[in-house]
UniProtKB/TrEMBL annotation, chain B:
UniProt cross-references to SMART domains, sorted A to Z: RelA_SpoT
Taxonomy of the source species: Bacteria, Bacillati, Bacillota, Bacilli, Lactobacillales
SUPFAM superfamilies: Nucleotidyltransferase
Domain RelA/SpoT: 43-170
Domain of life: Bacteria
InterPro entries for this protein: GTP_Pyrophosphokinase, NT_sf, RelA_SpoT
Pathway(s) of this molecule: Purine metabolism; ppGpp biosynthesis; ppGpp from GTP: step 1/2
Protein name as catalogued: RelA/SpoT domain-containing protein
Length: 225, 202
């Protein structure tokens, strides 16, 4: 994947260097020189990363960030802050930035952070997990062993977490936490128990040897016998 | 005379006797306070033309003997159940039944076919008061029982439409979608089964 990057930076020299460096590793780069143009570009185009300088004319980076977030945009945002300004960094992160770099920063470090972001996007948000005789396709919400079956979104998330923590005793609270979003969904131990029951039956239906052990009150453990 | 010869009309009597027996099994369950075994039953005698075609395809003689002995599905009954558990309950009762003997079982529920087909097939052998093709009276007949859930049955109907329409556009895509919906229906069957258990436990 080639990342699409929006850079908002009023120092022309720095903007040119960043643009050239990112283009040389095949990122698609758009560079603008103030916060207002950044907000406009973010409204019109889709980006994977927005790099925002804090100190900019016309509209500063922090104001631009707030407007971008207020419009519902969830793009990964990296702020560029001056060395001394701890408060800027705190305000930036609190206003919805995902990361920051302190000026002057090394180009090497910026590139490493972008690579780390790419990894997170591609590898860790894993499409397919395997465990023992199981294959879990997170995109297709599909479980396969001897046989294949569909999973609901909740079952997929729950099984993914159980696989990533196979062999560990996971408490009811922990599993609820990782399966349901706490801000917009309510779930209790009974909801978890029903989903564990679905998964157990589905593991059996695909003829897998993998088991989820645990009594109704938890904890639960994914085991390969 | 067709491939069944003098046994043609008899096969319908055999089918009636068989469906009566299976209905009895369900009645006994209900009488014992358990849910009915199945949602519905359908039976058929394979048409003489498709039986002749099958004998040819399998390399058997196109004869009455081959149709009733080498082939064992001249008489067929499909047991369509509400829930997966009912499929297994029906199977258990068939295995225990004194009036028939199970000759073969094919579990396409655990071992779903690559296209997504799910069903449990059983070949039964049972005694009737009629003469059979070997000249014995009372005679033996074979029948194929297919056990499946309503969801598996709906899927099979859809797949059947696809199979017998030869000019399906983009058949590969339709096959992929069929396979995917089979997985979703299997998931629904499991979820309904699980909910049923939760209700029974509470």
């Amino acid at each position: 994947m080639s990342l699409r990057v929006l850079i908002a930076e009023d120092e022309q020299q720095l903007a040119r260097v960043l643009t050239a460096a990112l283009q040389s590793i095949n990122y698609e780069v758009t560079a603008v020189e103030n916060g207002e143009l950044a907000v406009k570009a973010a409204q019109e185009n889709a980006y994977d990363v927005i790099i925002l300088d804090i100190m900019m004319p016309v509209k500063d980076g922090l104001t631009a960030l707030k407007e971008i977030r207020a419009s519902g945009d969830r793009t990964y945002v990296m702020m560029l802050t001056a060395m001394a300004e701890v408060d800027d960094r705190v305000t930036g992160l609190d206003a919805g930035a995902d990361d920051y770099l302190t000026k002057p920063f090394s180009l090497k470090e910026l590139l490493a952070r972008l690579r780390s972001l790419e990894r997170r996007n591609e590898e860790y948000d894993d499409d397919v997990l395997t465990f023992a005789d199981l294959t879990l396709d997170n995109n297709e919400q599909r479980l396969e062993a001897h046989n294949s079956i569909s999973l609901s979104k909740k079952e997929t998330r729950l099984l993914q977490y159980l696989i990533l923590n196979a062999g560990k005793a996971l408490s009811t609270a922990d599993l609820i936490n990782h399966t349901w979003d706490d801000d917009d969904e309510a779930a209790d131990a009974q909801d978890l128990w029903i989903n564990i029951s679905y998964l157990r039956q589905k593991l059996q239906a695909v003829n897998s040897t993998v088991q989820i052990t645990g009594e109704k009150s938890g904890p639960f453990t994914l085991l390969q016998p | 005379m067709d491939i069944y010869g003098q046994f043609g009309p008899r096969l319908h009597d055999v089918l009636t006797r068989l469906t009566d027996q299976i209905e009895q099994l369900s009645h006994q369950e209900v009488a014992a306070g358990r849910p009915k075994l199945y949602e519905h039953l359908i039976g058929r005698v394979k048409t003489p033309a498709s039986m002749a075609e099958k004998c040819q395809r399998k390399g058997f003689a196109v004869s009455t003997h081959a149709a009733l002995r080498d082939c064992q599905d001249a008489v067929g009954v499909r047991i369509v159940c509400n829930f997966i558990d009912d499929v297994y309950r029906s199977l258990k009762l068939l295995r225990q039944a004194s009036w028939c003997q199970i000759v073969e079982e094919k579990d396409y529920i655990t071992n779903a076919k690559p296209n997504g087909y799910r069903s449990y097939h059983v070949i039964l052998k049972f005694e009737t008061p009629f003469a059979d093709v070997d000249g014995a009276t009372p005679g033996y007949y074979y029948a194929e029982i297919q056990l499946r859930t309503i969801a598996m049955d709906s899927w099979a109907s859809l797949e059947h439409e696809m199979k017998y329409k030869h000019d399906v556009k983009d058949a590969a895509r339709i096959s992929r979608e069929l396979k995917s919906v089979a997985e979703q229906l299997a998931a629904c069957d499991i979820q309904m089964q699980t909910i049923r258990q939760l209700i029974q436990e509470s």
